[in-house]
Amino acid sequence: MNNLIKGEKHDWEMVIGLEIHAQIKSNSKLFSSSSTKFGSSPNSQVSLVDAAMPGMLPVINKYCVEQAVKTGVGLNAKINNYSVFDRKNYFYADLPQGYQISQYKYPIVGEGKVTIDFKDGTSKDIRIVRLHLEQDAGKSLHDQNPSKTYVDLNRSGVALMEIVSEPDIRTPDEAGMYISKIRSILMYLDTCDGNMQEGSLRADVNISVRKPGDEYGTRCEIKNLNSIKFIKQAINYEAKRQIEILESGSSIEQNTMLFNTSTGKTRPMRNKEEAHDYRYFPDPDLLPLQISEEEIGKIKSSIPELPDELKNKFIETYKLSNYDASALTAEKQTSDYFNETINSDSELKIHAKIVVNWITSELFSLLNKNNLDLNNSPVSPENLGQLIKLISTNEISGKIAKDVIEEMFSSGKTARQIVDEKGLQQVTDQGEIAKVIDEVIAENPKMVEQYLAGKDKLLGFFVGQAMKLTKGKANPKMLNDILKQKLNKKN
Amino acid sequence: MSKSSLKQTLKDLETKKISIRELNQDYLKRIKEKDNLNVFIHFSEENVLKQIDNLEKDNSAKKLKGIPIAIKDLFCTKSMPTTAASKILENFNPTYESFVTQKLLDEGSIFVGKTNLDEFAMGSATNTSFFGNTINPLSKENKPLAPGGSSGGSAAAVAADLCLGATGTDTGGSIRQPASFCGVVGIKPTYGLCSRWGIAAFASSLDQAGIFSHNVEDASILLQSIAGFDQRDSTSAKVDIPNYFENLDDDLNGKTVGIPKEYSIDGTPMEISQIWEDAIKVLEKKGVKIKNISLPHTKYALPTYYIIAPAEASSNLARYDGVKYGFRSDEINSLDEMYENTRAQGFGKEVKRRILIGTYVLSAGYYDAYYLKAQKVRKLIADDFNKAFKECDFIVTPTAPSAAFPLNEKQNDPIKMYLNDVFTVPASLAGLPGISIPFGKDKNNLPLGIQILGKHFDEQQVFNTAISLERSYE
Fold first, then answer.
1. Which tens digit of pLDDT belongs to each residue from B299-354?
2. Which member of A346, A375, B69, B177 lies 3.0 to 4.6 Å from B173 by CB, making a disulfide possible if both were Cys?
3. Which residues from A are below 8 Å from B347, CB to CB?
4. Could you tell me if A305 and A96 are in contact, meaning their C-beta atoms sit under 8 angstroms apart?
5. pLDDT for position A491
């Protein structure tokens, strides 16, 4: 695959690594018992610890540790029996302690990997460097008052997992696929709600460009991107910016960049000289985190089927393509929906490909149009199963089925109800079809002449006319066969 | 004037020889008389009277019911402001009660006030307080002496008989050294014995709460009251707390005392070497085996301490930023300026010095050479003690290299001031329990202290040795 982008003078390759910040799904914060509920009124979920009152001490939330271990297992990563919490020191108004408790030298999870799947059936591994636990900061609210900044500490102390990848990513699309895959794994594991809009999942992107085969170039880091669209936009813009600089003969400054979502441009936030010295050191308020093999084993055994396992199972059981299977397993709700649909009728198993198509094209486009997702789909898996059964047994045509599903969607009726009420069953009676064809032939003598003179393409015209008369219900194959037969007889 | 002991007072209260009100009125009177010592940052007679009222209505039996206790102003208390002797917390009123003070309240004690200290417990003379010096009650007219520090207010409160006991905190000697200077008993227990929850942090890996009292028995009673596991402090130890007082046993026959040769330091006054020898002789007479031991890394303890403690402090004190509570400068044109001016104006000189040292030793490029190395040496110092304790049951040394010095003597020489901690710092780095008891006087009739160090969580042996020495000295 050619991943190169063209500059004025050379071809360039992007080198991209992601640091994903995933908020752990838990009821209480990483080191305090305050609630983590999103959208509560400002400063309503702040304990003495979160506000860094004098003499307050952090106490590790065991559930958050388990969630991190679970995630590590899901990322095929090494779980470290020994890890250490460090303080990352810097001043900011929404950082009450004056330091963030994070993990620096000894993270809880070490090297791992995830696989992304391309449309052409190939796939690629993206290596994970580490996953560590850390606290989130609060929020500075600059828009509440013209001259003052307010601070909301509800988010202060919420548990985050920072997942750091190797610079294995080469295109904006790969970056998108990688974060989608991570999101999918987290959601299967139920360790993060994956909600990018609410900020539960956000990423810093490290990017550099190089001529193919060269060493890595100087990188810039784009901070805090909270949608896949923005990630791709930011990468594209930043890569172009870097290429222009390099091709003009200048060099890249190692900067931390911010992405402006309305202009689609990146701009420098601070350069290497202005970078913070975080003065990391082990937090003396917390003991090193020790996790036994037994505890890890217990957590492992509680882990549900993950997308890759499920994907392989689908490929094997239903003979699906790698791409179809990975589309189906990207989100847990999709694979659940597929499972329920295909299990709703034993005869559907041999029509798995049709089931996939109906879910990923027809149903998804209807859901998209109506701003819904699978969890609140008006068409239940059983009902979709019933519709597909009607197609596979030739009771209705695929074309009719598209109208039927639209009505199922809007009325909530079952496929069977709609087909019966409207009499949409396919006409499979040879005599009836032949009658209609005779009518069409009789009404279009000139066309018949032209057809017989060699204008084969006109066959479609006759089919269309006949379908029109049967209101689309004629079995397309039978219609074709009889039509050809009759026309050829005229010869 | 013979000061009444806590133990005796409890008996007198029980037998109704004296009422809670009478007892505390007596202390209130003395507190007001000794106002010139500047022992308290916060004292409110009204608040004390209110506590007496409440206790009089309370019929339940409580171990320390009515006992007047002074609290170092580093412990957060609900009923009194908490300042850490800093301008930056000048008007801070906690909404919570520290673990240690809550335990004392639960047992019915009366808090007479919050005692003065070095700002954020950084100092050895209680002369870095925003609220002024505390004067050692043993000072002669016109020759004010330092009470030691950082818990100088609490030590002075006990020495001046303004309470029957006081809480302190000890990071590198802040209980033991002022106890020695003021001629009272001061115990710093094993790191982790008393929860740090609610104590404004100086150096988290070293800070430990402890007790000042008139005598060893009282210390054993009070320490038991404030010790115990607390799930809110991850470094708090899950150990059973023995009844130290009930178990007191001055029979040391057959025990072994370790005498570390590294604690004989050039320039130590004769009188201090003398009381050390006296103590050893007393122990020998009591059937204790004398074992000369070596703690070879002792000479590195001070520099190690003055890297680790400031490093932790520089981070612990970052929360005092003017954003959420406490002092905020008026001169603010930007966020950075708010930090700079608030902290420049809110912290005193010594605190700023230690924040700078701590920030420096943690900086990129210096971390390995200073902080990391100091941590390694700390381990070696702890190993020294572990080895030594295989050969002895406790260790006896002087508490401080001098008696109480004149106020302001070492004000402008931080290094000289830091040298005061030379005998107390090693045990702090190792997390070991240590007590200082008065044992002899210098030529000016000022008290000198002997320090007894024990194994981890072996406070009982420390108390037993202390009471044995105390009884022989009396």
1. 999 999 999 999 999 999 999 999 999 999 999 899 999 999 999 999 999 999 99
2. B177
3. none
4. no
5. 66
Q: What are phi and psi of B434, to 5 degrees?
A: -150, 145
Contact by Cβ (8 Å): B118, B85: yes
CA–CA dist B303, B152 (Å, integer): 23
Structure tokens that stand for A98 in this block:
């004056």
State which amino acid sits at residue A350: I
Which of A54, A58, A280 has the CB atom closest to B76's CB atom?
A: A54
A138 lies within 8 A of chain B by CB: no
**Closest-CA distance of chain A to residue B227, Å:** 17
Range of the domain at A341: 305-422
Q: How sure is the predictor about B26, in pLDDT bands with cuts at 50, 70 and 90? A: very high
Whether B232 sits inside 8 A of A59 (CB atoms) is yes
Q: B178: Cβ–Cβ under 8 A, 6 or more apart, which residues?
A: B126, B147, B148, B149, B150, B151, B152, B154, B155, B156, B168, B186, B212
Q: Each residue of A401-414: pLDDT tens digit?
A: 999 999 999 998 99
Residues A236 and A320 in one domain: no
Nearest Cβ partner of A279 from B89, B335, B363? B363
A327 and A290, same structural domain? no
CB-based contact B244:B223 (threshold 8 Å) = yes
Inter-chain residue contact B362 with A281, CB threshold 8 Å: yes
State the CATH number of the domain containing residue A451. 1.10.10.410
Q: How many residues does chain B have?
A: 474
Contact A285 B234 (CB under 8 A): yes
Residue A151 parent element (H or E): strand A150-152
CB contact under 8 A, B363 and A58: no
A89: closest chain B residue by CA: B315
Q: B1-474 falls under which CATH superfamily?
A: Amidase signature (AS) domain (3.90.1300.10)
- Residue B410: is its pLDDT beyond 70? no
Q: Which tokens is A457 given?
A: 């393409």
Q: Tell me the shortest Cα–Cα distance from A319 to chain B, in angstroms.
A: 54
- Kindly tell me if the per-residue pLDDT of A393 is higher than 90: no
State the average pLDDT for chain A.
92
What is the reported pTM? 0.89
Determine the pLDDT at residue A392. 87
Do the Cβ atoms of A55 and B233 come within 8 Å? no
Task: Tell me the two tokens of residue A108.
Answer: 């809880």
ipTM of the complex: 0.96
**Sole residue written with tokens 């990975």:** A326
Q: How many domains does chain A have?
A: 3
The closest alpha carbon to B103, from B194, B206, B217, B176, belongs to B194
Distance from the Cα of B282 to chain A's closest Cα (Å) equals 40
* Tokens coding B282: 């007393």
Rounded average pLDDT over A251-274: 90
3-state secondary structure of B98: coil
Instruction: Give me the count of residues in chain A.
Output: 491
Give the pLDDT of residue B1.
37
Which residues of B belong to the active site? 72, 150, 174
The pLDDT value given to residue A396: 85
